[in-house]
Each structure stands twice: as structure tokens, then as C-alpha cells.
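Support request from a user on the community tier.

User writes: "When I paste my C-alpha cells into the form, the page sometimes reloads and wipes my input. The last time it worked, I copied everything first. Here is what I submitted, just in case something in the input itself triggers the reload:"
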């Protein structure tokens, strides 16, 4: 392993969310339903000179206040070569029931209304990746790195917002790590 690191000098993939916005984000209290339209653009950069990546699956889960409200499978299989950048365009759109009652419902609703009046929501995105790396003719076994992104996403009103999105660097689990069995 030490020789591998010295010779290959692997570097983790870089993952940035470069743009995000909510054209709709509403919480309907009496049905505890979130109605959403969340658009995200993410840049995935392979900075390695000698390592390529096969992405067999990428999925994404969106959370607000630790409550998952959306899930999507992003892409078909693709290969990302050396020193290459791939753009992912993601659209979460729909509605989701959030199981809340009593004081938890009241607290959630208050936080939601406050964030809406401030013009931005703290949204957490977790990307699940199933990938393999390639060095020369060697292909590794599958790994399942997790990518975590904490975003402050502006809410658009009539197509504009007083809050601007700032590019966010996401925390990337090592693509060269072995599968830990977590789903």
C-alpha cells in the first residue's frame, strides 16, 4: 500500500455544489407535507494523473431540519478520466409527507416560516456513490464513498432572490476506501 501511495499519489475526487436554488419550497402544516422544486449544479473533479473512476450509480437525498424530503437516482454509468471535470445537474421536484406531531410539528413549522422570511433554507444533501477506480488495466472492487454537502439555498420569488448562493465544497469519503457495508 505504501508503494502504491508513493507511486500513484492518489487524491480524493473534489466535489463542489456551484449553484442551487429553490423555485418552490412550502410546508403545508395540516398535512405535514413539503412541496419542493430544488435545482442543484454540482462539479465533480478527478484531480489524479493516473487514476480514472467508473461511477456505477450516484443517488442523492435531500434533508431539511434532519427530515428527508427527497430522493433521486442521478445518472447512468459513466467513466471519469484523469484530470477531468464532470457537471451534474440535479432536479428534486415533488412533495413529501414529514411525520411530525404536537410540539415537534409546531417547532418545525416555526423554523420553516422563519427561514422562508429570511429568503434561504439550510438544506443538507447526501450523495451516495457506487464506484471503482482504474489504474492502467487494473480495476478495483466497488467502493461506496459518501459525499455530504451542507447548503444555504436561496428561495426564488418571481425568479429572483435577495440571497445569493455561494459555491460549497462538499465532504468526500475516500473513493479508494473499501466498502464499509453501510447503505
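"...and here is what came back when it finally went through:"
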Amino acid at each position: 500500500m505504501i508503494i502504491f501511495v508513493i507511486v500513484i499519489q492518489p487524491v480524493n475526487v473534489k466535489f463542489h455544489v456551484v449553484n442551487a436554488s429553490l423555485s418552490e419550497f412550502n410546508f403545508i402544516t395540516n398535512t405535514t407535507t413539503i412541496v419542493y422544486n430544488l435545482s442543484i449544479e454540482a462539479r465533480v473533479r478527478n484531480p489524479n494523473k493516473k487514476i480514472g473512476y467508473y461511477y456505477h450509480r450516484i443517488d442523492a437525498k435531500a434533508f431539511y431540519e434532519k427530515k428527508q424530503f427527497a430522493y433521486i437516482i442521478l445518472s447512468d454509468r459513466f467513466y471519469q478520466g484523469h484530470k477531468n471535470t464532470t457537471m451534474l445537474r440535479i432536479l428534486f421536484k415533488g412533495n413529501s409527507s414529514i411525520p411530525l406531531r404536537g410540539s415537534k410539528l409546531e417547532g418545525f413549522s416555526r423554523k420553516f416560516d422563519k427561514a422562508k422570511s429570511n429568503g434561504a433554507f439550510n438544506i443538507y444533501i447526501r450523495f451516495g456513490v457506487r464506484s471503482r477506480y482504474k489504474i492502467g488495466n487494473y480495476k478495483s472492487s466497488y467502493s461506496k464513498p459518501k459525499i455530504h454537502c451542507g447548503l444555504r439555498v436561496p428561495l426564488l420569488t418571481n425568479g429572483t432572490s435577495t440571497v445569493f448562493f455561494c459555491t460549497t465544497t462538499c465532504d468526500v469519503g475516500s473513493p479508494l476506501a473499501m466498502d464499509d457495508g453501510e447503505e
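Agent notes: The reload is a front-end session timeout and is unrelated to the input. Residues 59 and 73 are 4 Å apart (CA to CA). The domain at 14-172 is CATH 2.60.40 (Immunoglobulin-like). Escalated to web team.
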